[in-house]
Design brief:
Layout (H helix, E strand, L loop, with lengths): L11 E8 L4 E8 L3 E7 L6 E2 L1 H4 L7 E2 L2 E4 L8 H11 L4 E3 L2 E3 L4 E3 L14 H9 L17 E2 L9 E2 L2 E7 L5 E9 L3 E3 L5 E3 L11 H6 L13 E10 L3 H18 E2 L9 E10 L5 H22 L10 H7 L3
Parallel strand pairs: 6-9, 16-18
Antiparallel strand pairs: 1-2, 2-6, 3-5, 3-18, 4-9, 7-8, 10-11, 12-13, 13-16, 14-15, 14-17
Helix pairs in contact: 2-3, 5-6
Length: 326
């Protein structure tokens, strides 16, 4: 089955800014017009912007873009560049003298694998907008550039994560796409339940983080807040803000299916939802969207691991398949 992409949702583009030397970057999800939006933050160590604004009952209904960024808290600066790009085009929440672009954002920690003093700034966010297209690259690009997976045995034993995308569609035209920057503390689990990315054990095989925890083998200095899976979901369904927020909650099941353990104290797992409103919902359509979107998130996370390239001593799943056990 073809993976598909979040850009299979009509009117949604994706742009990346990538620094392959510092191993960091950012990714913008840029709809052609403002979208009803929702969010759910489940990890205990999040770094976010404008998430309270998206919650049910609050004034603003729409988002103009979603930013996923590396650089930890510093990387939130990239959202300023997205705001500037949108404002120049007259896109945003209207007030008497202009517009205020609404750009919710989430970051991941990638300062440990590349340069510790470099991160996406406002110019990087602006450049990501300029690069936006319907062609969504995967792997070591954008927010996935410095992503890693499986830190239970320390950063020196982790594997390379990355950016992945996938989509699902119903027979009558409902579409849901997921985009995930995979920087998990835990392991990425394959369709068959095996660990496809995680900590590298002493014999060169991929260890199971849950088993490491069970045996008390966890690397004690493992730093809280240095991990995260950040996700954006887009759908062509016409959702209310309440439904968009509920969908974000349900889509965390996709993280839990593909990452083990997920939503830990050291992760900032966050899901954003954008609804373009192209398709009015009828009957059981909302239940269908829940199923499609959750599955797209699950598959996008696996793609984030499978499409990554090994760098800075962190091997990828491709590297391990090629080399075999040490």
């Amino acid at each position: 089955m073809a993976a598909g992409s979040i850009t299979d949702v009509a009117g949604v583009r994706v742009g990346h800014w990538t620094d392959t030397e510092a191993l960091t970057g950012c990714t913008v999800v840029l709809p052609d017009r403002p979208c009803i939006a929702g969010v759910d933050v489940r990890g205990a160590a999040p770094g976010t912007r404008e998430t309270d604004l998206l919650r049910t009952g609050n004034l603003v209904q729409h988002a103009d873009a979603i930013l996923l960024s590396g650089g930890s808290a510093f990387g939130l600066e990239a959202a300023t560049g997205v705001v500037r790009w949108l404002r120049e085009r007259g896109v945003g929440y209207a007030f008497s003298k202009g517009v205020i672009p609404i750009v919710p954002a989430a970051i991941l920690f990638d300062l440990g694998i590349g340069a510790h003093d470099a991160w996406p700034n406002a110019d990087a966010g602006y450049a990501a907008c300029r690069a936006a297209s319907s062609n969504c690259e995967e792997g070591n690009v954008g927010a996935g550039t410095g992503a890693t997976i499986g830190k239970a045995l320390g950063l020196e034993r982790c594997m390379k994560g990355g950016l992945g995308t996938a989509s699902e569609r119903s027979i009558h035209g409902l579409v849901a796409g997921g985009l995930a920057a995979v920087n998990a503390s835990g392991d990425v689990i394959g369709e068959d339940g095996t660990v496809i990315a995680g900590p590298i054990d002493e014999d060169g095989t991929i260890a199971d983080t849950v088993e490491l925890l069970r045996r008390g083998r966890i690397w004690q200095p493992e730093a809280a807040g240095q991990n995260t899976v950040i996700v954006c979901v887009a759908t062509n369904a016409a959702l209310t803000k309440e439904q968009a927020n509920r969908l974000a909650t349900v889509c965390h099941d996709g993280i839990a299916r593909a990452v083990r353990p997920a939503h830990t104290q050291g992760d900032g797992d966050t899901v954003f939802v954008l609804a373009t409103g192209e398709r009015e919902l009828q009957g059981a359509d909302y239940r269908i969207i829940e199923a499609l979107a959750t599955r797209a998130v699950e598959r996008a996370i696996r793609r984030g691991a499978e499409m990554a390239q090994g760098v800075a001593g962190a091997p990828s799943t491709v590297d391990l398949r090629r080399q075999g056990p040490a």
